[in-house]
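Structure tokens please, single chain.
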Amino acid sequence: MSQRILFVDRDGTLIEEPADFQIDSYAKLRFVAGVIPALRALCAAGFELVMVTNQDGLGTDSFPREAFEGPHQLMMQVLESQGIRFREVLVDESFEHEAKPTRKPNVGLLLHYLRDRSIDLAGSAVIGDRPTDLQLAENLGCRGFQLAPGPWTWEGIVAELLGGGRRASVERTTRETRLRISIDLDQVAEPEARTGLGFFDHMLEQLGKHGGFALKVHCEGDLHIDEHHTVEDTALALGQALRSALGDKRGIGRYGSAASDHDSRELAARFVLPMDETLASAAVDLSGRPYFVFEGSFPREQVGGLPTELVPHFFRSLCETAGLNLHLQVRGENAHHMVEACFKATARALRQALARAGTDLPSTKGVL
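Here you go.
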């Protein structure tokens, strides 16, 4: 298998770059937000790291080598203590006006990677904080990501490289409803729901908020008849979007992150959620096999215009198109609390099951 490389800049990418552009003292050494967990995840996914950095005039009177080495070695030791090791550290010491072929964005320091046929350059990437890093990526024939002031964060880069972004949009039109749903499993954002049923909108927002993903739902349904088609079709479209966004499901928790010294993938995520007098629990398996089990009864027929009989029907329909196995239980006295606890508990169980680390497929069958 070809090796994928991340060609990573140093100043402004791994560690913050000071106003004078030189990290020549320990006091100036500060890591960029999110870099350590991101690099750990990328290394676990099989990427190798190569540092490529321009250090203007290193070894001259303007930037003595001994002032550089101490903070640099401390940085490397901290990274190594977290399991982050670099295949190679490549430093160009020239000034910009010298225009040497070894200075980024030129590829002089990286010619051996261009010649090595075991390197998957198309699957590799350059990560930096300047346009020159993007130009280097173009010169190498790989992808480029620019951190601030560019558009990327370390968290976003991990999501993009490990899954290409787990996003999906679904439009569903029938004689009863017109639906548009978008979902991004790797983006945290305030959820939006507009279905014409205020309480149902609130419940959908609980799924996005407590599930930890971006969710937008817009539905125009035949509410002049009743609520059934709006609730059912929303669940079916949401399940379709969820299944599409998950892709091949590599790296997901599947059952969630149950605490165990053994393989946590063998333990279902049973999330128990209290809400005043109400207690709800949800257990989730993203198995690809739809199955829904519900235990509970509501003390009244309707909450905020939403018939309570449609609550288990919503989750059953969601399971059908998402390929989801869900066991949901609720007990309590206040119907509002009970319905809301069902949505929140399911969302929290989904949050665990959707969480991704690495690229392994959590199934002995080789497919989910």
